[in-house]
Amino acid sequence: MRAIKYIAIHCTATSQNTSISAIQSYWKNQLGWKMPGYHFIVKPDGETVNLLPIEQVSNGVKGFNSQTINISYIGGIDLNNAPKDTRTPAQKASILKLLKDFKQKFPTATIQGHRDFPNVHKACPSFDAKKEYKDV
């Protein structure tokens, strides 16, 4: 098992009705990635989809992927494509469950948003994950 130092929270920066297959197609065809951007994606109904085993490295945060588990929710923008916390109550509950499970396995891991990493100039995940999950 690789050493996990971070659990990063992301948004897909898409509308909530974007399919996971469309997101995966974007990674492969537009970005040229061989691996997914996240280990888990949480759909608006709260369903958690595991895209990659946590033992493998995903493409979530450049320079930190080898030590990070990446979790995203579908959404994160408003109708004008501006950053907005669009998490549904079901998404919030599913993310919290994942975080609690991972903190049991990796108690020293820091939970933070993509935007909280050094040299990241994004709003992702469109809310203050570090503050919201500080007590997990």
UniProtKB/TrEMBL annotation:
It holds the Pfam family Amidase_2. Residues 2-126 form the N-acetylmuramoyl-L-alanine amidase domain. InterPro entries: Amidase/PGRP_sf, Amidase_domain. This is N-acetylmuramoyl-L-alanine amidase. Signal peptide: none annotated. SUPFAM superfamilies: N-acetylmuramoyl-L-alanine amidase-like (SSF55846). One of its GO terms (biological process) is peptidoglycan catabolic process. It comes from the Bacteria. GO terms for molecular function: N-acetylmuramoyl-L-alanine amidase activity. Gene3D superfamilies: Peptidoglycan recognition protein-like.
